[in-house]
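[step 3/7] inverse_fold.run input=structure_tokens len=418
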């Protein structure tokens, strides 16, 4: 079977396994039972390929090792890791994916005639470059799941290729398939890094052909709890301390221009995600984001300072807060020693005739957390577009190029070690 058809066959098999995650703050990992189905399917396939040290943890983290294939007395070749996530995103669509393979000839795409679901070219100009190509699309009732099952198909096909051809030289390769990326990177946060002893790694978890990411947000979350004083309205004067109004006062202490809807590029923000309150208690949930580490730390200090301002505004209230780091900027992990991981992406793209599109991501990947553990983990394209949407689609030539990039990165690591 041709590589392209192998990639497609794997991808279609994987997306038909429902594996949505559900946000629960990491209380239970994985957050859904369905992710175990995906992990066990891959565990079986890794066993059939003959990989070593296959382990499925109690947190649904699946790891495996493909030993190096090197000639005698070969110099050290860097050990490379590849990480992809098992879960698909929950955006209140069907968890069941019904993919369709079509040739796109331009114009609108009728995803579901029965339900009158149409991907309109006027609303989706990103379709235009793919006229004349084969696409995999949804039936309009779900996301497609190329985020991140295109990466899983890519990695598994690469392993199959390497196992099947002893002439292909490579260093040690380590694989990690993790759950719950879409709801907080909880899978990578529960990795056993003794099972991932790599010099550097890659995630394959962004969009169109050519995209490269090694800059992401530094990310954290804060929870501010305001204890007021309840009182009956008939005798509330001088007694009632309304925590709901104090929560509003607290949120208004922040710069309204530094929010997600008012920023772009590498501009950071503090996002008030929710206010939950009753007559005695209000809780404010905040997300903190900035590409620059110093500015990120300053935003954390600003939250603490605004808590003090609120306490001074109403001394009768009791205000407590917690701040937790979620992940870091991949770029902060770059050193002269590991820079090869990024340089090789651009060298491989040059050889494959792929035009790089380097993006400072306004978000994070599993690599954003893994990089905080001293393992530089940049990210490159799956080829898919419109992630987290029923209009998600995957151009088949782009999927093929993503696989070719994976193979080229493995080959380059060996070549440069000689």
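[step 3/7] decode complete -> sequence:
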């Amino acid at each position: 079977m041709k590589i392209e058809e192998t990639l497609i066959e794997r991808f279609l098999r994987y997306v038909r396994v429902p594996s949505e995650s559900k946000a629960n703050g990491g209380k239970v990992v994985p957050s859904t039972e369905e992710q175990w189905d995906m992990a066990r399917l891959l565990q079986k396939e890794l066993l059939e390929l003959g990989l070593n040290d296959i382990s499925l943890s109690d947190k649904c983290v699946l790891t495996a090792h493909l030993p190096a294939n090197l000639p005698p007395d070969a110099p050290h070749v860097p050990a490379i890791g590849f990480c992809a996530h098992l879960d698909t995103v929950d955006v209140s669509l069907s968890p069941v994916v019904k993919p369709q393979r079509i040739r796109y000839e331009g114009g609108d795409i009728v995803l579901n005639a029965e339900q009158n679901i149409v991907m309109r070219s006027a609303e989706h100009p990103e379709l235009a470059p793919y006229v004349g190509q084969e696409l995999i699309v949804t039936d309009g009732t779900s996301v497609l799941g190329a985020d991140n099952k295109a990466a899983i198909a890519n990695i598994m096909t690469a392993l199959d290729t390497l196992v099947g051809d002893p002439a292909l030289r490579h260093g040690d390769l380590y694989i990690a398939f993790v759950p719950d990326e879409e709801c907080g990177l909880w899978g990578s946060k529960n990795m056993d890094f003794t099972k991932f002893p790599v010099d550097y790694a890659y995630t394959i978890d962004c969009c169109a052909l050519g995209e490269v990411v090694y800059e992401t947000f530094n990310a954290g979350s804060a929870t501010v709890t305001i204890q007021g004083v309840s009182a009956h309205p008939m005798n509330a004067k001088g007694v009632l301390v309304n925590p709901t109004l104090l929560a509003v006062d607290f949120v208004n202490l922040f710069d309204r221009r530094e929010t997600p809807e008012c920023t772009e590029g590498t501009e950071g923000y503090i996002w008030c995600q929710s206010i939950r309150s009753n007559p005695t208690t209000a809780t404010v949930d905040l997300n903190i984001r900035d590409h620059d580490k110093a500015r990120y730390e300053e935003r954390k200090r600003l939250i603490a300072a605004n808590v003090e301002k609120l306490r001074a505004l109403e001394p009768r209230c009791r205000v407590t807060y917690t701040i937790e780091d979620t992940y870091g900027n991949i770029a902060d992990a770059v050193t002269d020693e590991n820079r090869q991981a990024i340089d090789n992406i651009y060298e491989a793209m040059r050889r494959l005739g792929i035009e790089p599109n380097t993006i400072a991501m306004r978000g994070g990947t599993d690599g954003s957390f893994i990089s905080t553990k001293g393992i530089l983990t940049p990210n490159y394209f799956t080829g898919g577009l419109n992630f987290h949407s029923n209009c998600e689609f995957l151009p088949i030539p782009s999927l093929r190029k993503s696989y070719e990039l994976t193979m080229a990165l493995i080959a380059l690591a060996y070549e440069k070690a000689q």
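[step 4/7] annotate
Residues 396-417 form the longest helix (22 residues).
The radius of gyration is 24 Å.
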